[in-house]
Design goal:
single chain; 0% strand; mainly alpha; Growth Hormone, Chain: A; 13 helices; 268 residues
């Protein structure tokens, strides 16, 4: 702690606060565990009956659920799963298998950078940047497939699908991809984490299953241009949601975040 804060910083007070937070957390965790002993479904229902949507906990869960909705329905996971099919349909000069390797390499590099940027630039900035950038790249894909479907020779522009998909994947890994999981730990009270984390993870992976299941069917039914247009619209709505409903948690204590939620936080 002295190395982190500097040799002239009095770390004793901060260490005492950390110890108190750890002890309070252990006490609440033990209390929550006792509450769920016995019939866990009955206990869960009792907790759910006490749950209020307008409480800070309810607002926090609503924010995370909204972020996970736009995270999954942005379609990035489907783009990754069906990379080869997407590039094959786009008719790019680069072999689809090679293009998928490029996308995978971009994921690795950007994932290393994301942890460095989150605390430097803030959650809201990265969320907004990722949603707006993904919407723009989806628009590029729409334009590409519209011209391609009309019979234009797009060989000179075959770089657009690779550029767009790589950019979408990269900015997703920096913003809307990891940040909802960070914020779940930051804004949901400890006593609600036991049941809310399970609920939110179940919801998130259910959305992922749905998107992955219908993505290629949607392309076959309405076409690539309409599919990417829908994804772009979802990303745009995600940016609006972040701007109006998601508070900045960078360098804020849990108490300060809860106070903002209790007062009915809105960015407008």
């Amino acid at each position: 702690m002295r190395w982190l804060r500097g040799p002239n910083f009095d770390v004793e007070g901060e260490l005492l606060r950390i110890q108190k937070m750890i002890q309070d957390g252990e006490d609440k965790r033990a209390s929550s565990k006792e509450d769920f002993e016995g019939n866990c479904f009955v206990k869960l229902w009792e907790h759910w009956k006490k749950f209020e949507l307008r409480s800070p906990t309810g607002k926090a869960i609503g924010i995370i659920m909204g972020l996970m909705t736009f995270q999954r329905f942005s379609g990035v996971s489907a783009l990754i799963y069906y990379t080869v099919d997407i590039f094959r349909n786009a008719g790019t000069r680069i072999a689809p298998s090679t293009a998928s390797i490029i996308v995978g390499a971009v994921q690795v590099v950007v994932s290393l950078l994301s942890s460095l940027l989150i605390d430097r630039l803030g959650r809201r900035f990265l969320l907004l940047t990722s949603e707006i950038t993904m919407a723009f790249c989806q628009l590029l894909l729409v334009a590409y497939f519209v011209f391609k479907n009309q019979g234009y020779d797009m060989q000179d522009y075959s770089w657009i699908p690779i550029f767009s998909v790589c950019t979408i994947v990269a900015i997703f890994r920096i913003g809307i991809g990891p940040i909802p999981w960070f914020m779940m730990a930051e804004i949901i009270p400890l006593e609600a984490k036991l049941w809310s984390s399970s609920l939110l993870m179940c919801y998130s992976w259910s959305c992922l299953f749905l998107v992955s299941k219908v993505f290629m069917d949607l392309i076959d039914t309405v076409g690539s241009a309409a599919t990417y247009g829908l994804l772009g619209l979802i990303c745009t709505l995600g940016a609006v949601f972040v701007y109006t409903r998601v508070p900045e948690t960078k360098n804020k204590s849990f108490e300060a975040i809860q106070a903002e939620l209790a007062m009915g936080y809105t960015a407008l």
